[in-house]
Amino acid sequence: MAPTYRKRYKKRRTRKEQLQMRILMILIAVILLGSILGIIHKVKQERAQQTVSDSSWDITDKKYVDQRPELDVELLPVNEYSRPGLALKKVRGIVVHYTANPGTTAIQNRNYFAGLEQSHQTKASSHFVIGLDGEIVQCIPCNEIAYASNNRNSDTIAIECCIPDDTGKFNDSTYQSLIQLTTWLIGRYDLGIEDVIRHYDVTGKNCPKYFVEHESAWEDFHDDLAAYIEKNGVDKE
């Protein structure tokens, strides 16, 4: 092999090796980034689900709310897209969601779930939908699963909340009804306040949006649940 050719060959090989090294470094960086994001999400999940040290939340050991809020029971027809009719044998949590369609009413969202029987667009539903005026529509019995919370469908009650705008923040009427409904469910199923979670805590989805993007608001919501039980609860025997 002539010296000039050997130099060119060596130069091409060096460039190829450099390109391969850059590609390898990019792949490693992508893998590391994915791992870091996965760890961060796992830590947040564990933090949200861990045993709560705040003594004010221990109120559920002493009191419970036995007054059921007013419900508009509009059960979905049994179908494979929104009400499969499968038994929910044990309730271990309550999952809060938001509708992600500003300005719509509780009954409109309920009817959307019902319409999936014909449209086959997706599988989705919720046990309850809370509207902008605080109205609570029950779509599925609490002893059946809803298609709302992925791998927690089998042991949780789902609550969808309507929103007035793109911020995802609940108005006061919706918020107060959410507190009343959630505290009643906590008492009914002998749960703790730490058992009230977000859809985000199950899958990492930005739902309910405002409570995900404003962690302090989510913490305030838990504190408001405790305060409501303290004020309106009855003593456990």
TrEMBL record:
Sequence intervals crossing the membrane: 21-40
Gene Ontology BP, a term: cell wall organization
E.C. no: 3.5.1.28
This protein's record includes keyword Hydrolase: yes
Pfam families in UniProt: Amidase_2
Hydrolase found in the keyword field: yes
Sequence ranges assigned to domain N-acetylmuramoyl-L-alanine amidase in this UniProt record: 81-225
One MF annotation (Gene Ontology) recorded for this entry: N-acetylmuramoyl-L-alanine amidase activity
Catalysis performed (reactions): Hydrolyzes the link between N-acetylmuramoyl residues and L-amino acid residues in certain cell-wall glycopeptides
Top EC class for this record: hydrolase
Name of the protein described by the UniProt record: N-acetylmuramoyl-L-alanine amidase
Provenance organism: Roseburia faecis
